[in-house]
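Second attempt. The first submission of Mitochondrial import receptor subunit TOM9-2 had a stray character pasted in from the spreadsheet, which I only caught after the job came back as garbage. Lesson logged: always re-copy from the clean sequence file. Corrected sequence (107 aa) follows.
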Amino acid sequence: MASQGRRGGVSLPDRSGHSKNEQSSIISKISQSQLVSRGKQAAGDAAFVTKKLLKSTGKAAWIAGTTFLILVVPLIIEMDREQQLNELELQQASLLGTPSVGPPPQK
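This time the job returned cleanly.
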């Protein structure tokens, strides 16, 4: 069995006139071309800008988050306490039978 050749495969004829050195020199010419070097430079610049953008966005998110926690959250808590106090006073006033504070009577 091991002596049998491959089955079902198609083998292509060898290219005449092209040696390994010629093919590798073409690849090296392409990889050293100005277009490839500009592409590499553009990719490097894009990576640098993306890194800077993500870093500055992270800093801005940190500043916004801490500012919200320090300034806005206590304000929300205090407004909620004030609302609860107003509701409690209104409930006590209705239970005690005192008239609710409203607009003055019209003449």
